[in-house]
Amino acid sequence: MGRSLWIILAVLGGGLILLIVNDSSGETFGMSNDAFGQTLYLGVWGAVVAAGILGSGMRLGYVARSLALWMLLILVFIAGYQYRYELQDFASRVTAGLVPGSPLSITDSDGNHTVMLDKLSNGHFGTRAVINGAAINVLVDTGATSTVLTAADARRAGFDTSKLSFTIPVSTANGMARAAQVTADEISIGAIVRRRVPMLVAESNALDQTLLGMNFIGTLSGFDVRGDRMILRD
């Protein structure tokens, strides 16, 4: 190992001297000084690793298998990073198929999000939203100015309904009711996330289903309906 170290240091020193001498010409052995420097750097590190492996006394077969395993892991991580958006889309499709009402999120290479919602058996578009960390089933209501939570869903989202002031008149499928103003820290539909969203909480038993209103939908770049599917664009 001692002789190998001296050889490595000698190669490194000789390379540095060549770079200094050829600084004005910009080339060393027909290569640009930058390329030569990178080659020298990688070569020295390769020599250090090789010397360490050979000096460890490990069998070459074991070393070769270990290096091959590490190379495979590195390639898997690189591939996972390069295809991260496709993998996210695949996971979203699997989730949407396994959990009814789950939104299907697609993210393009520019990081733009599109979420697709399927029509429910009742003929309305609905999905599973996450409000303040709580999963809540919502109906999309483009006729509603604001998102309106049922009292039960409001409690799931962390609001203390006993301390709310129900003074705002609202029209529901069950008739006129009163609601209270709150602000959600975060609401997300698939990959589309909005923070500090004002919404209403209906009185107990005044609303059967939480409604996703235009104060959320209006923040999107666009949305449209194609058959039994609604498409939301961030």
Distance between the termini: 60 Å
Biggest beta-sheet profile: 7 strands, mixed
Total helical elements: 6
Q: On the 0-100 scale, what is the average pLDDT?
A: 78
- Total strands: the figure is 13
GO molecular function: aspartic-type endopeptidase activity
InterPro entries: Aspartic_peptidase_AS (IPR001969), Clan_AA_Asp_peptidase_C (IPR011969), Peptidase_A2_cat (IPR001995), Peptidase_aspartic_dom_sf (IPR021109), Retropepsin-like_bacterial (IPR034122)
Keywords: Hydrolase, Membrane, Protease, Transmembrane, Transmembrane helix
Domain Peptidase A2: 136-216
Q: What does this molecule look like?
A:
This is Aspartyl protease family protein. GO terms for molecular function: aspartic-type endopeptidase activity. It is a single chain. The chain is an alpha+beta fold and 234 residues long. Helix content is 39%, strand content 31%. The mean pLDDT is 78. The strands form three sheets. Strands 5, 6, 7, 8, 9, 10 and 11 form a seven-stranded mixed β-sheet that branches. Helix 1 runs antiparallel to helix 2 (33-56). The chain has helices spanning 2-21, 33-56, 60-82, 84-98, 151-156, 214-217; strands at residues 27-28, 31-32, 104-107, 113-118, 126-131, 134-140, 148-149, 168-172, 175-189, 192-202, 210-212, 222-226, 229-233.
List the helices and strands and how they pair.
Layout: H1 2-21, E1 27-28, E2 31-32, H2 33-56, H3 60-82, H4 84-98, E3 104-107, E4 113-118, E5 126-131, E6 134-140, E7 148-149, H5 151-156, E8 168-172, E9 175-189, E10 192-202, E11 210-212, H6 214-217, E12 222-226, E13 229-233
Parallel strand pairs: 6-11, 7-10
Antiparallel strand pairs: 1-2, 3-4, 4-13, 5-6, 5-9, 8-9, 9-10, 12-13
Helix pairs in contact: 1-2
